[in-house]
Every structure is written in C-alpha cells, then in structure tokens.
Amino acid sequence: MGACLGVCSVLSCVSCLCGSAPCLLCGCCPSAKNSTISRLLFTFFLFLGTLVSIIMIIPGVEKELHKLPGFCEGSGSVLGIQRNVNCESFLGHKAVYRMGFAMAAFFFLFAAIMLCVRSSKDPRAALQNGFWFFKFLVLVGITVGAFYIPDGTFTSVWFYFGVVGSFLFILIQLVLLIDFAHSWSQLWLGNAEESNAKGWYAALCIITFIFYATSIAAIVLLYVYYTKPEGCTEGKVLISINLILCLIVSAVSILPKVQDAQPHSGLLQASLITLYTVYVTWAALANVPTRSCNPTLLVRNSNSSAVATQPVTTWWDAPSIVGLVIFILCTLFISLRRSDHRQVNKLMLTEEQGAGAEEGAVESSPHRAYDNEQEGVTYSYSFFHLCLLLAALYIMMTLTNWYRPDESLQVLSSPWTAVWVKISSSWAGLLLYLWTLVAPLVLPDRDFS
Q1: Rounded to whole angstroms, how far apart are CA atoms 389 and 383?
Q2: Strands 404-405 and 300-301
Q3: Helix H or strand E encompassing 69
Q4: What confidence score (pLDDT) does residue 86 get?
Q5: pLDDT above 50 for 385
Q6: DSSP state at residue 130
Q7: What secondary structure letter does DSSP report for 312?
C-alpha cells in the first residue's frame, strides 16, 4: 500500500511538472500570481545553470572534465591549424562558455517563441506558464549538445557575444539600481513625513554616510593597490575620472532647482550610485593585463616552459564574488518586483494590465497560483527572456573573469576589452542617473512624477 501511494505521489508530481504553474504551488503556500511563479521558475533554471558552471570551475572538478568524451578533442584546432595544446589548462573556461551558450540559446528560443503574446488566452502562453519538465529536458539537451561544439573560433567569437551581452546587462543593473535608490528614498522620506519621526531622517543620514565612507575608503585602496608613483597612468586616469563624475552627480542631486523639481532626490541615491560606480571601477582595474598595475591579476596557463614560472591560480577573486551576488539580486529583482515608477515599468515592459481578474481569482482559488493575465500579460514574455539571456552572458563572463585564451591557446589572459567595457558602463550609468535628475528641468512639460 505504501509503495502504491508513493508511486501515485510521484505520478502526481510528474503531471504537475508537465502542467501549468498553478499546479506547482503547494497548499501551504499563500496565493500567488501565475506570472510571478513562471518568472521564478525560469530564474531557477538560470540559477541552476549558474550553479553547474560554478561547480565546473572548482579545481578538483575541472581536472576531471577531460574525461568527458570528445571534450578535449579538437582543442588544438584553430582555423584548421593543428596545435599542440594542453587542454587541461582551460577546461573550466571551456565548460563555463558552453554552459553559458546553452542557457543563452534556451532563453533566446523562448524569447523568439513568445513574441507578441498579449494574454494568457494565446496558446503560446501555456508554453510559457507550463510544461516545466519538458522545458527542463530541452535545457539539458541543449547543454549536452553545447559540450560537443568544436573549439575552432567558437571561444573567441563567443567571447565578444559575452562582452556585448554583459554590457547590456550592466545597463539593466544600473536602471534597476537607480529605480531602487529612488524608491528607497521616497519610502523613507514618506514615512518620516507621515509619522513626524526624526528617526527616519537619522537613518537616511547614517546610511548615506556609510555609503560615502565606504566609497572613499575604496577609492583610496584603489589608488594604493592599482597605481604606482611612476606608471599605471591608465589606472590613475580612470579612478580620477570616476571620482570627479561621482562628485558632480552628488552635487547636482542637492541643487535647489533639482530639489524643487524632485523633492525626493538627494544624497542617498547619489551615495548608492557612487558606491556601485566604485565597484565597477574596481572590477575594471582587476582586468588590467599589466601585473605591476594589477596585483589581483589571475594567470591561467598550461605547463609549458614559457609560462611555467607564473603561478596557476583559481578563477575566484573578490570582484567576481561581488558580481555574482549582484547578479543574483538583479535577476530576483526582475522576477519579483514591479517598479513604483511608470517610466521604469514602460522601459522594462512590466506594466500591470491583467489586474481586473485578480480579486475574483484570489477568492476562488486560495493557496494556489491564479491566472492574472486573461485580459493582458503583466510583463513582456520576450523581453523577460531577453533579460535572462543577457544575465546568462553576464554570469558567464563574470565566472571566467572576462579572460580569454591567447593566440597559442596556452595562456588565458585578461584583455583590455574587459576594462573599457566595464568603465564605459560605469560612465553610462552615471550619465543615466544625471539625466533622471535634470530631465524635469530640461523637459518641464513632461510628467516625471
């Protein structure tokens, strides 16, 4: 009897996985929107792929990857020229790139399929919100196939795809960060005005002070460790430029005219943007390929005599760990939260539309996911998958430290491309935040509330 009950339980779970999102919510959980559960499950697929990538670059696991059939075969073939290459020198790099390709292909497939879906009445919406077991099988199939992609020019070409995708995802991060900073400040200032409590103002001051103090300390450390009295001109210039830009946006945020146009703008948002800019600057300097100007430079090489004197290190460094945390927070932010600002919802294509059927669905289906998209989707399916595609490329580049093999395929080195992409993204973020401050003054006829 117990065995029969167990089989029935397994069959019910399998049928749930093959069905829609509402079936996946257990009876002990509170009611939730069908759209939210679907986004969380797709995000879970992304996190699962990220976990597999992290496992593959663990030194002990990385050394065993050469046992995969065909994984090292053809590694020395570049443009038809056979080279004597020690494949074990970059097995983890290859594995992460192929895992990143599999996740990007998976989300690109769904982004293409879900174009122009307007409501849950569209037959394609059932594919978005259900058939999870089969979607998992598709992801596994693409992943297995990706590991049989011959090297050739794949790594060098896919590196540039990763660079472009990562740059775009960093811009999405900045949009979300700016939106979060404005919402945070509005919430605390609103609480202070409603309760007439000075504690909220004190908390704002304390948090702002902590952010600026951390930023100043970090900038000092960047000058100490990533510059030299003689040389390292690039590092000095980049740190100084971003420091000046941070001072400018901080000063603009408290100008009287800006305060009149946006009463909730202030130093809290500017301090958070400054702290993030300092982090991006640090991450950029950690990719400077000059050892004398970058004490955290990682070297991955083969056992050839040409580079035997250089230490073989692991992938993990502090900027990568921080980048991984930011990646997790941003993807969860995209999956769970709808912005309080109409402009951000319009930009991120997450405007609520199907709210009309929500109340009745909640009452009739307690402790289950309910369909809140019968009248209209609450987010753009294709744009959501595009964001996850860019997130997959970003985490691929983060886990490999933006490194790529050299022409001899003997050493994985950090290119200047990574430095300039990160620095330019920090400038774009600062300009975007500056525009949110001055836009009401430049375009007074538009509503920026």
Answers
A1: 10
A2: unpaired
A3: none
A4: 54
A5: yes
A6: B
A7: P
Residue among 400, 331, 405 nearest 99 (CA): 400
255 close to 248: Cβ distance less than 8 angstroms: no
Q: How far is the C-alpha of 382 from the C-alpha of 178, rounded, in Å?
A: 23
For the chain, first and last CA: distance in Å? 63
Determine the pLDDT at residue 176: 83
Site of tokens 């941070």: 246
Q: Where are the alpha helices (DSSP H) in 32-89?
A: 34-56, 59-62
| Sheet strands (E) in 121-210 | none
| Alpha carbon distance 421, 78 (integer Å) | 26
Task: Read off the pLDDT of residues 163-194 as tens digits, 9 standing for 90 and up.
Answer: 999 999 988 888 888 888 888 888 887 777 77
pLDDT tens digits along 188-215: 877 777 777 777 888 888 999 999 999 9
Pick left, alpha or beta for residue 80 (phi over 0 → left; psi -120 to 50 → alpha; otherwise beta): left
Over 60: is that where the pLDDT of 227 sits?
A: yes
And the tokens for 135?
């979607």
Residue 281: strand, helix, or coil: helix
Interacting residues of 130 by C-beta distance below 8 A, sequence separation 6+? 18, 19, 20, 21
- Cα separation, 38 vs 22, whole angstroms: 9
Once rounded to an integer, what is the mean pLDDT over residues 370-394? 78
Q: What's the token pair of residue 428?
A: 């774009």
Measured CA to CA, the distance from residue 99 to residue 67 in angstroms comes to 17
What pLDDT, on the 0 to 100 scale, is given for residue 409?
Answer: 55
State the pLDDT at residue 18: 53
Total residue length of the chain? 449
- 210: tokens are 């902590």
Residues 163-173 as b or e (16 or more Cβ within 10 Å = b): bebbbbbbebb
Residue type, 380: S
Q: Could you read off the pLDDT of 301-320 as tens digits, one per residue? A: 444 333 444 444 455 667 77
